[in-house]
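Try this one yourself first.
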């Protein structure tokens, strides 16, 4: 049962649960299956794994506040939400807002966040049977922010329907950009390379040649074929990536064990070997139903020049083309991805601040930032890496 319940004038019950385990997986995933832009990361098994593994819990600054709307026994809307005591693991940066609050003697935290922790993949966030239910869910989030005395509400990387419902609830949109590859019907990786401008093609070929000349080969394993030993090696690489940046991994080894057990069909692992020994690993998330792949995590136990680009972009792109996948999302940030065939793709988040003066200031900032972002994307598109007709 929920940690708290309330009913509105229509008789719809609003629940707030402090654990995703309190929600029925079949009904949650049934909602997800009807959304415009579903992703595997919004499956309840994924969200439960984040919680059960200790990766996104109150101790790490993510206090769960899963919101669901019920009409009798029918789940009509739901979303994952957290009360956050920091802004790590989000990839939509509001540190400047938090600093402004602090300089004025105000508390920015806790804030109410709707997102998939540590996963900047755009898609549906407010799961609902229809637009009316989605609008009620957006209003319930505003009410929850007020009830919990959160400074603000943030919904990250939502789809168009989410943005419309949140705008009606008083939120302001924030524009962003990521870099994605979408299929052009290429028969193989060689055809993909041939579609690029000469300098971009030569650079990729040179980088791959350096990796081959270093004696590195790749193997790809998908789903249940990824062994516990493979997962152990990958996690070692994952830890080393964070250590190189003097930080700690967001995700625990137990999280990936749960992924291997509960969602194996959504994972693809590239392992790089030299002289038979593993030297690096790149983990890709898959959405087989929608023929989409997502670059997620990488790490190496030995430095090899250009290995990162091959493991994280060229091998996954070659695999996607060979398997008939239609989209590869490279993750947050990174203009360098354009030279590898990934193009700028607009993203959006929605924000509401309780403090009127700060809300006005942030809304003004977002309007100016949005205009600048539109111009930035136009400029990026003028330098697309593909040949022109």
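Now uncover the answer:
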């Amino acid at each position: 049962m929920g940690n708290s319940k309330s009913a509105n004038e229509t008789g719809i019950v609003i629940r707030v649960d402090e654990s995703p385990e309190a929600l029925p997986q079949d009904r949650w995933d049934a909602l997800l299956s009807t959304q415009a832009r579903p992703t595997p990361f919004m499956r309840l098994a994924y969200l439960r794994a984040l919680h059960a593994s200790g990766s996104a819990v109150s101790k790490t600054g993510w206090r769960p506040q899963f919101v669901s709307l019920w009409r009798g026994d029918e789940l009509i809307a739901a979303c994952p939400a957290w009360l956050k005591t920091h802004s790590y693991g989000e990839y939509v940066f509001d540190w400047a807002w938090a600093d402004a609050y602090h300089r004025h003697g105000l508390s920015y935290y806790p804030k109410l966040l709707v997102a998939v922790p540590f996963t900047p993949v755009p898609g549906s966030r407010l799961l609902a049977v229809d637009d009316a239910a989605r609008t009620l869910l957006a209003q319930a989030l505003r009410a929850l922010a007020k009830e919990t005395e959160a400074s603000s509400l943030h919904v990250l990387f939502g789809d168009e329907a989410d943005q419309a419902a949140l705008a009606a609830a008083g939120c302001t949109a924030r524009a962003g950009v990521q870099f994605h590859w979408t299929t052009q019907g290429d028969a193989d990786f060689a055809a993909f390379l041939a579609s690029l401008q000469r300098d971009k093609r030569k650079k990729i070929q040179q980088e791959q040649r350096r990796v081959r000349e270093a004696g590195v080969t790749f193997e790809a394993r998908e789903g249940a074929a990824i062994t516990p030993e493979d997962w152990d090696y990958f996690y070692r690489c994952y830890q080393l990536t964070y250590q190189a940046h003097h930080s700690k991994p967001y995700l625990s080894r137990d999280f990936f064990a749960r992924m291997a057990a509960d969602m194996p069909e959504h994972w693809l692992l590239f392992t790089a070997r030299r002289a038979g020994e593993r030297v690096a690993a790149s983990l890709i998330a898959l959405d087989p139903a929608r023929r989409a792949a997502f670059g997620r995590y990488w790490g190496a136990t030995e430095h090899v020049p250009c290995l990162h680009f091959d493991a994280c972009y060229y091998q996954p792109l070659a695999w996607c083309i060979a398997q008939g996948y239609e989209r590869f999302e490279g993750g947050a940030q990174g203009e360098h991805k354009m030279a590898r065939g990934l193009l700028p793709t607009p993203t959006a988040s929605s924000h509401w601040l309780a403090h009127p003066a700060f809300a006005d200031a942030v809304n003004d900032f977002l309007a100016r930032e949005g205009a600048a972002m539109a111009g930035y994307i136009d400029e990026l598109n003028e330098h697309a890496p593909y040949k022109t007709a």
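Discussion: The first strand starts at residue 4 and ends at 7. The mean pLDDT is 96.
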